[in-house]
Design a protein that fits this description.
Elements (H helix, E strand, L loop, with lengths): L17 H4 L3 E3 L5 E10 L8 E8 L2 E6 L3 E4 L2 E4 L16 E2 H5 L3 E4 L4 E4 L2 E7 L2 E8 L2 H7 L3 H10 L8 E3 L4 E2 L9 E3 L9 H8 L4 H10 L2 H10 L2 H10 L2 H10 L2 H9 L3 H10 L2 H11 L16 E3 L4 H11 L9 E4 L5 E5 L1 H6 L6 H4 L7 E2 L4 H10 L4 E5 L5 E6 H8 L4 H10 L1
Parallel strand pairs: 1-6, 8-14, 15-16, 18-19
Antiparallel strand pairs: 1-2, 2-3, 2-7, 3-4, 5-6, 8-9, 10-11, 11-12, 13-14, 16-17, 19-20
Length: 431
């Protein structure tokens, strides 16, 4: 098996998981079931270790056979010859049993801080050779083991969420002493940047303050900003407080303006002003404006990342503008139409743009009766309006109806949960 990069991980074909094949029946060539698959074992020397042994649970106890002695069939495994004729093969010194030695064990960083539990193990079958390719540390892995993955996936879909796979590729994981009763694994410190920002957040939340500071000093600015956005609010303040001012300002510039404003709001005033002064002019002014609104108002929870299309464009010109802007997918929920002074005229869906004749003016296909709220609107009223009309986003305007930003459904979720639970709750759903 060739080297598999993290960047290309998502392009792999769907692969089995240990929980999906463990405890399957093992039958003889005659069709008689004689055992259950209890476990698999590998030698952890390769980047993606091959499965060499199968541990069978028989009526007489465990029996270790070569993986090559089994043929994978739908719903079960078939021995190539009767079990009595299969040679038992003891595990080699240093072998890892996937279920016994790895499931429910901790992934830790190089300094020994606990991070997350291994909930399942990702496997890949290539030309008949089964390999260990990843550790599932997300909620999805745990749900899969108890048969609840499908239900959770459907529930997440109802609220417009997905359950992406919280996988740490195995070549980023290194086993520690396999003779310990409680085998631990490590993610090399220098490779943290290759993980998903939510996984980096899980790691740093278990570290000491000094270790967190080192990680955020070493990560590239964009990754650091994404990871900091996933960290619990109280710890965000601690991290930013420990970083050098220039480094902290650089990271804040890369964060979404509303997230940066929320973080800065919790900092001491002197530190907050220092960081805003060090931020680039545009980003600093945007964050400072958000901080000027009361926390319990629509202005206090808006995001200034939105797509505004000039009303004089036609459908073809609007699509060209979107190609130039390359907005994030979540910003395409609603596309707002504004006049030359930035006043909100209406909104238009991406679907309507795509199906319209390219020469059709935006004013002909937009919805001119778009619901909006002024900045001073109480945030509870904002949440009520979004729930009542089933909105994914609600535009916020000033006294002259100029479009300032929008409140997203994520912001409304925050209103329904105790402070600090938002990121953790949505992150858990996402896995």
């Amino acid at each position: 098996m060739g080297d598999i990069s993290v960047a290309g991980w998502a392009t792999l074909a769907p692969v089995p998981y240990l929980s999906e094949i463990q405890h399957r029946g093992v039958i003889e060539p005659s069709g008689t079931e004689v055992a259950k698959l209890a476990d698999l074992a590998v030698m952890p020397k390769e980047q993606f270790p091959a499965v060499h042994w199968a541990i069978l649970a028989t009526s007489e106890g465990e029996r270790v056979v070569r993986w090559a002695d089994l043929v994978t069939e739908i719903g079960h495994f078939r021995l190539r010859k009767p079990l009595k004729d299969v040679t038992s093969e003891p595990l080699a010194t240093g072998a890892l049993r996937l279920a016994k030695d790895l499931l429910d064990k901790q992934i830790v960083d190089t300094h020994g801080s606990k991070v997350v539990r291994v909930n399942d193990l990702q496997l890949e079958d290539t030309a008949g050779q089964l390999r260990l390719v990843g550790a599932d540390v997300g909620l999805r892995g745990l749900l899969r083991r108890v048969g609840g993955e499908g239900v959770a996936e459907r529930l997440a879909g109802v609220v417009g969420r997905k359950l992406p796979r919280g996988i740490i590729p195995w070549h980023l994981v290194e086993p520690l002493d396999t003779h310990e009763a409680n085998v631990r694994l490590i993610v090399p410190h220098a490779k943290l940047a290759l993980l998903h920002p939510a996984d980096i957040a899980d790691i740093v939340e278990q570290m000491s303050a000094d270790e967190r500071r080192v990680v955020f000093e070493q990560l590239d600015v964009e990754t650091a900003a994404e990871a900091l956005g996933e960290v619990e609010p109280e710890m965000q303040v601690s991290i930013v407080g420990d970083l050098d001012e220039e480094r902290a300002a650089d990271i804040l510039e890369e964060m979404a303006p509303d997230e940066a404003a929320d973080l800065l709001q919790d900092l001491p005033e002197e530190r907050r002003e220092e960081l805003i002064d060090l931020m680039a002019d545009a980003e600093g002014e945007e964050v400072e404006e958000l901080l000027s609104y009361p926390e319990d108002s629509a202005g206090g929870i808006i995001t200034t990342d939105f797509v505004a299309l000039p009303r004089e464009l036609n459908a073809g010109g609007a699509i060209d503008r979107l190609r130039e802007l390359k907005p994030d997918p979540e910003l395409a929920y609603y596309l707002y139409v504004v006049d030359p002074d930035g006043r909100l005229d209406g909104n238009v869906s991406l679907r309507d743009l795509v199906v319209a004749d390219p020469r059709t003016q935006l004013t002909e296909i937009m919805n001119p009766n778009v619901l909006h709220v002024p900045t001073e609107t109480d945030k509870e009223e904002v949440a009520s309006l979004m729930a009542k009309y089933d909105l994914l986003a609600l535009p916020v305007v000033d006294a002259r109806r100029r479009l300032l930003g929008m409140v997203t459904v994520d912001d409304v979720v925050e209103l329904m949960l105790p402070r600090g639970w938002k990121k953790r709750s949505l992150r858990t759903i996402a896995r």
